[in-house]
Design a protein that fits this description.
Oligomer: single chain
Order of helices and strands: HHHHHHHHHHHHHHHHH
Shape: elongated
Length: about 325
Amino acid sequence: MIVKICISNNYPVLLGVTMKHFIQHDYPIPKKSFQHFVLYLEKCKGYEEDAKKFVFMTSETETLDFSYDLVRPLFQRNMELKSGNDVLQLFEQIRKNIKLNRTAKSLSPAEKAVKLQEKRKDFYDGLLKDLLAKKAYALAQIVYGEKMREKFEPSVGDQLIGLEIFGSQRKIEDFSELFNKLLAEAPTNPTPAKQAAAGEASAVVAEPEQGKLTQDTCEQIAKNLMYFDSDKEKNRRLEMAERLFRRVIDANISLSARLFDSLIFVFTESQQWRQLIDTLNAVSPRNCTPEVKTLNYLKKNLLYCFEPQLRSQLKEQIESLEDTFFAT
């Protein structure tokens, strides 16, 4: 109520003094009220720095706890109304002042370190998500680079974020480096035959291990490959698409509609008719869920296949898949 009254009457000084008193005496300040207060100071000319100082003061309480969600309104306002440099300045100021609040005083040093690391990771992940949603890829790359310098446990999710950042900016060297690392580190799923040979057919299915290549991972890789559509980049895009397809088959991963569509698009754009034949040969109801639009796209582009035998073979394969998946 006090926050609403002061904001509606435009009393930033009175509100600031009151909030400081509340923080120093550890009054239970609702999170939403604190966010409204900080955002109000950010909007008041001359009080922008005070807004950040109050965020840093949350470490002096037991009721307010720093998280990206707490400061998200500040970042969203900066993204909407200010320059990229302003966003980066806010990022630097916040990330250098992330602390635990007083509830952590009973924790051991090791526990404090783990909890602080979790807070820092939450901050980076939340900000990156918002920057990518705004398509602010250049800013996201800077934040991503800072996150990679932190001692966080590496994850496939981080690598996929990197692929989106580099792909959207068509930075193929950086993209290729991450792509190679992702495919090299991700183990493949054993085929049923290999499982049986190893005596694993009746084993309990374990949780997916960290870094295992999954359908979703492959979908995101293939989607980001689509950014590289210039003549200069197409050969390298094709090489990566072929490697991805081989890994998908070796890992016994199902071709979802999106993954299948992306691979067919790349192979068709590159006029890799034999690769398309191999891809369609690998497709069955057991491992693929294609959409009719993908087959229609391929069918329309057959006029660019100038080898009659290959064109005829592809036409037969497309008709067979249409009968298999879409016959009524």
